[in-house]
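Try this one yourself first.
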């Protein structure tokens, strides 16, 4: 029987413990690393005789360093965003200075449209000069300046053509109608601009019954700012005037009703609405080719009238052949179309009378005895 107690392991085959980390398996969660140092490992000699299990020596300092390396945030690379921002800002500043001082300067001005004014007058009115910067040039201000300075301009449009040109389009103000009042005949363009005043009757369509108090040359009759301040009597002022006319004997009964009382002021209609009505009728007359209309009367808002005839060039008198009564100003397009058709197809060229448009589908002509 062999004596196992006398057996002594040879130093030659003594195995030194080593630290060999085990790979982390996929099933192990990242926040719970595998404990590679607490596991036992059996060692065998060359002869195959098993040795006792030994726990490998553990290096405490190495573990602390490994945990510190894991907890340390990743190193951030140096960012050059700040440098790029600084260079971009400097580039924008340099480009802006060059654009204002050197680039995008006005070298050419193109003028389109017909006008009674010369190119120099239009440029001077708009403050346009060669050499100014396109970036700093205010087109809206220049357009308003040209319209305010030049009366015979109905509209203006200024467009920037980069890199070095301006295009100015001017719309000439031609007379469309003339408004008659105590001062004479105010000539008005198609866009409602007052372009002149004459003592004699001009050719074309004359408008009567228009509340033209406060008109001024250069203003627009469709804009409230074109009129001077005009005091309008309100219903409360009429009521106060009515109460003042009551007699002392019978204070409950006024001498005159609120409708018949006369005050020093008169109720004035809205001129802007009147202007819209006038141009609506004028456009319909042109659309339906209703030739021979020389006067539009809007004095009665419940019965708008048109007069077909001609004007005496000697004394400015109107020779009115046909009086067209349109009634209330609704469905004017259909009414004017019927009136134009009746005058052209049913009324003789030298016949005179009154044409009343009953509705939008029917009209009745009554010849006069003269």
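Now uncover the answer:
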């Amino acid at each position: 029987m062999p004596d196992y107690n006398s057996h002594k392991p040879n130093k030659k085959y003594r195995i030194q413990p080593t630290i060999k980390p085990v790979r982390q398996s996929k099933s192990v969660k990242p926040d719970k690393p595998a404990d590679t140092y607490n596991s036992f490992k059996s060692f065998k000699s060359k002869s195959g005789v098993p040795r006792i299990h030994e726990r490998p020596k553990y290096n405490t300092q190495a573990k602390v360093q490994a945990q510190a390396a894991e907890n340390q945030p990743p190193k951030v690379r140096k960012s050059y965003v700040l440098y790029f921002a600084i260079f971009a800002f400097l580039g924008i500043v340099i480009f802006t200075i060059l654009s204002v001082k050197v680039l995008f300067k006005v070298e050419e001005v193109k003028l389109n449209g017909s006008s009674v004014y010369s190119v120099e007058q239009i440029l001077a009115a708009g403050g346009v000069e060669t050499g100014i910067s396109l970036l700093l040039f205010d087109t809206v201000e220049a357009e308003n300046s040209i319209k305010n300075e030049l009366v015979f301009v109905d509209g203006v449009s200024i467009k920037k053509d980069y890199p070095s040109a301006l295009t100015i389009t001017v719309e000439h103000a031609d007379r469309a109608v003339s408004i008659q009042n105590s001062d004479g005949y105010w000539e008005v363009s198609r866009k409602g601009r007052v372009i002149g005043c004459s003592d004699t009757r001009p050719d074309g369509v004359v408008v009567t019954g228009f509340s033209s108090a406060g008109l001024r040359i250069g203003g627009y009759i469709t804009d409230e700012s074109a009129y001077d301040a005009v005091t309008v009597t309100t219903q409360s002022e009429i009521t106060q005037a009515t109460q003042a006319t009551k007699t002392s004997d019978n204070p409950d009964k006024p001498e005159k009703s609120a409708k018949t009382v006369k005050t020093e002021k008169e109720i004035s209609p809205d001129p802007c609405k009147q202007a819209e009505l006038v141009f609506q009728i004028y456009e319909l007359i042109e659309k339906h080719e209703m030739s021979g209309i020389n006067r539009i009367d809007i004095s009665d808002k419940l019965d708008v009238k048109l007069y077909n005839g001609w004007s005496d060039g000697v004394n400015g008198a109107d020779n009115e052949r046909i009086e067209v009564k349109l009634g209330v100003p609704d469905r004017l397009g259909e009414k004017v179309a019927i009136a134009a058709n009746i005058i052209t197809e049913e009324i003789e060229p030298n016949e005179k009378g009154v044409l009343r448009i009953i509705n939008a589908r029917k009209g009745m002509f009554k010849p006069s005895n003269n």
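Discussion: The longest helix spans residues 81-101. Residues 13 and 47 are 9 Å apart (CA to CA).
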